[in-house]
Specification:
Elements lengths: L10 E8 L21 E4 L8 E3 L6 E9 L7 E8 L11 E2 L19 H16 L10 H9 L14 E7 L10 E11 L3 E6 L5 H4 L2 H23 L11 E5 L1 H4 L13 E3 L24 E4 L14 H27 L9 H19 L10 H4 L6 H21 L16 H17 L5 H10 L4 H9 L3 H14 L18 H13 L10 E3 L4 E8 L2 E9 L6 E6 L4 H4 L4 H7 L8 H4 L4
Parallel strand pairs: 6-14, 9-10, 10-12, 13-15
Antiparallel strand pairs: 1-2, 1-4, 3-16, 4-15, 5-14, 5-16, 7-8, 8-9, 11-12
Helix pairs in contact: 4-6, 4-7, 6-7, 6-9, 7-9, 7-10, 9-10, 9-14, 10-13, 11-12
């Protein structure tokens, strides 16, 4: 990854949590004491002539300042310094360092945040699809040849097998770097057939009835038919049907068990989908065919292994539980990739961050239907996990917990991980942010119809930020601003707060403290969002990736002294340009000469 030099920050977002009365919400006055409780002001650096000001006041107040980088380019780095209560540019070099200064200049040191084995493996599969498979027509850029090429992958209708039949399948060798050329030929016994699913068990694992009871086998296909298939289809579009049998193959195989090293503490791989299964097996143009292809829609899933023959011992119940959320997640990838493959207007697979965000939304969408929650019902921790060890607890662990866990990693370092980052293929924190970012847009920019927005996103033909802003019809800088404020303000009871600064689907202050205490192994359950308190006479340095923000809190006591807070360049231009007076102060603020702010605009 290439980190570009400093780029100016896009917006300064100021949220008043409590304080005095004053001017209306359209004011851009830098006098924060005039803000109403719940008001949000948006500044660009050139609107802060003398910094953010808090005159001596008879009323107490608390203010959250979010220094945000709203650029839409991936992983652009912007640096800033917050100087509090300095009287002029001459004092900048002598401001007392903050005790938080060291931790707020991490400079992306957490890029390799711990990640689960499943997420890491999923990333590998998606990365190969984008590099090793192409949606471009070998015949040229015109729609007709492109369409003809892709439809050539459609195969003759495959008869629906019966229980007990043996079917031939290829399993991508996911431990290799080429999933198309390296694969395992195997046979599988059909163990359950439903309206939408064919469940098969690898013959190398043994007879299905030795691993599952028939009731469990049928419960898997029933859940897929009644919950997962209709939910993902309504959220993301109907899946393709390359083999024309109207069903998805769920293959349980010990080959997936082998991908997890026995005793590995990084989690396990529960399963995956591979887009190579859409492509023809032969061809002349590189990346337009895949010898591994089953020319069918297939999930490759972890199998029960009571003796540890393929690695760790896996009970039937643990496999059943582990694969529920995986199927919901991977089904979005299957739908997204398949429809892009067949659509002549589409030339690229979806960007990693948005593809993963949609797949993570698929998890909680399926969980909501499973639990009979509505799409936008505001859920608390007690709604999600009302009991310990009951079926509701299993649903929470299968469909909800992992998204909150990933979001925890973002909340403790909100300025280091962007939801729109290319690090979505390496970072749990980025995935958590991407899910929350999309979930916020679904809640607030879908006109009350989340499924219409996610269907539009899955349809393309654009990808990434262009796709996201096109579907929401909202500029990316506005989305980033609203989302960042909401991550602090959500369900916090701030009087007068615009409803757009809250989630409709979750009460995060209810859910996140308990989840984060578990994830971070903390003794106390508190809201994990990192907020830096600004004391007097301090200088705090920080770094933001595009799409992120650093949160600061300023508290004012009744009768306290006047305060001024400057958000500035790391190196004051006053010193470099030998300037004096007010002009020197302006040049030391957060604005280099040039168009840095405009560079970070979303359009």
């Amino acid at each position: 990854m290439i980190l570009r030099p400093f780029v100016g920050l896009g917006l300064l977002l100021v949220l008043a949590c409590n304080g005095s009365d004053g001017m209306g919400p359209t004011s851009v006055s830098s006098d924060l004491s005039t803000m109403n409780v719940g008001e949000v002001r948006v500044f660009t650096p050139n609107q802060l002539d003398g910094g953010l000001r808090l005159p001596e006041s008879s009323s107490p107040g608390e203010y959250i300042i979010v220094v945000a980088n709203t650029g839409s380019q991936h992983d652009v780095v912007a640096n800033h310094v917050v100087n509090a209560d300095v009287s002029g540019p001459g004092m900048l070099a002598t401001s007392a360092p903050s005790e938080l200064n060291g931790q707020s200049t991490l400079m992306l040191s957490h890029v390799d945040v711990a990640r689960t084995r499943q997420d890491a493996f999923d990333n590998k599969v998606r990365a190969f699809e984008r590099s090793g498979l192409t949606l471009h027509s070998p015949s040229g850029p015109f729609p007709a040849p492109k369409f003809s090429f892709r439809r050539s992958a459609q195969v003759a209708a495959t008869p629906v097998p019966s229980v007990g039949d043996i079917i031939n399948l290829k399993i991508p060798s996911a431990s290799s770097d080429n999933l198309c050329n390296n694969f395992v030929n195997t046979q599988a016994t059909v163990a359950s057939v439903s309206r939408r699913a064919i469940l098969a068990v690898d013959t190398l694992d043994g007879p299905p009835q030795l691993l599952f009871t028939q009731a469990v086998l049928d419960s898997i296909t029933v859940e897929f038919d009644n919950i997962t298939y209709p939910t993902d289809s309504s959220y993301f579009k109907n899946p393709t049907d390359i083999d024309s049998n109207g069903r998805i193959i769920l293959l349980f195989t010990g080959q997936i068990n082998k991908l997890t090293t026995p005793g590995d503490q990084g989690g396990y791989i529960a399963g995956f989908f591979f887009a190579g299964d859409f492509f023809p097996t032969t061809g002349t143009t590189p990346n337009t065919f895949c010898p591994e292809s089953n020319q069918a829609e297939v999930f490759y899933l972890l199998a029960p292994d009571p003796t540890g023959r393929f690695g760790n011992v896996r009970s039937t119940s643990s496999v059943r539980q582990a694969t529920r959320g995986t199927v919901a997640h991977e089904f979005q990838h299957m739908i997204n990739a398949g429809n892009r493959y067949l659509d002549p207007a589409v030339t690229e697979f979806e960007s990693t961050w948005l593809d993963e965000a949609l797949a993570h939304v698929a998890e909680d969408a399926v969980g909501r239907v499973q639990r009979s929650f509505t799409d936008l019902q505001t859920l608390t921790l007690n709604d999600l996990r009302p009991c310990s060890g009951c079926s509701q607890s299993d649903d929470f662990n299968a469909f909800f917990f992992q998204n909150f866990a990933r979001l925890t990693y973002w909340m403790v370092d909100p300025n280091q991980f962007s939801p729109m980052s290319k690090m979505a293929d390496t970072s749990l924190a980025t995935r958590g942010a991407a899910w929350a970012f999309l979930r916020y847009a679904v809640d607030n920019y879908s006109n009350g119809d989340p499924r219409s927005l996610t269907r539009a996103l899955a349809a393309g033909p654009d990808t990434g930020v262009v796709n996201f802003t096109g579907a929401t019809r909202v500029p990316v800088d506005t989305l980033v601003k609203d989302w960042l404020v909401s991550m602090y303000a959500d369900h916090s009871g701030i009087a007068g707060l615009d409803p757009k600064y809250q989630y409709r689907s979750y009460d995060f202050p209810s859910v996140m403290p308990t989840v984060s205490a578990t994830v971070l192994n903390r003794p106390t359950a508190t809201y994990p969002l990192e907020v830096i308190s600004i004391g007097t006479g301090v200088s705090i340095s920080s770094t933001n990736l595009s799409g992120t923000g650093t949160y600061y809190k300023v508290s004012v006591t009744a009768g306290g002294s006047a305060r001024r807070i400057m958000i500035q360049n790391p190196t004051p231009y006053a010193v470099l340009n030998c300037c004096i007076g007010k002009d020197a102060e302006w040049r030391s603020r957060l604005a280099y000469p040039g168009a840095h702010i405009y560079v970070l605009r979303s359009q």
